[in-house]
């Protein structure tokens, strides 16, 4: 699982945009968005770089990434 620290994600609409972007390329991926901590947790077969690109193309800069066991 990867966890992305995302800047500017402040509402349900923001979360929905990110969820939709990731599910467009990986419909079977697992995505959990935490607005209060501005984090996105993803389990996906897509690469870390591709996931970062998708989130950032949605308009939300990724500040940090960490792998969670």
UniProtKB/TrEMBL annotation:
<dbReference type="Pfam" id="PF00403">
    <property type="entry name" value="HMA"/>
</dbReference>
<protein>
    <recommendedName>
        <fullName>HMA domain-containing protein</fullName>
    </recommendedName>
</protein>
<dbReference type="InterPro" id="IPR006121">
    <property type="entry name" value="HMA_dom"/>
</dbReference>
<feature type="domain" description="HMA">
    <location>
        <begin position="1"/>
        <end position="63"/>
    </location>
</feature>
<dbReference type="InterPro" id="IPR036163">
    <property type="entry name" value="HMA_dom_sf"/>
</dbReference>
<dbReference type="GO" id="GO:0046872">
    <property type="term" value="F:metal ion binding"/>
</dbReference>
